Amino acid sequence: MNYSERITIEPGKCGGKPCIRGMRITVYDVLDYLASGMSHEEILADFPDLTEEDLRACLSFAAARERKLFAAAE
Question: What is the Cα Rg of the chain in Å?
């Protein structure tokens, strides 16, 4: 998935943290909700502006960041 169309980083918004489509919902928050056991359906119900594609973009962004960190450590 190409997350670059959904994940935005703006210096003046949320302290420059990666957000979803310019909203004030951070990738970190979504990943934290998933890690705490919330289902996709529960997150989407709590945040009606989000889509399933947004959640997948968060996971794709995290995976890409992990790949970069691992590659830099080698």
Answer: 13
pLDDT tens for each residue of 41-52: 999 999 999 999
- CA torsion sign for 8, 18, 26, 32 is positive
Domain with residue 54: its CATH number is 1.10.10.10
Q: In this structure, what are the phi and psi dihedrals at residue 69, rounded to the nearest 5 degrees?
A: -65, -40
Burial of 30 from C-beta contacts in 10 A (0-12 / 13-18 / 19+):
buried
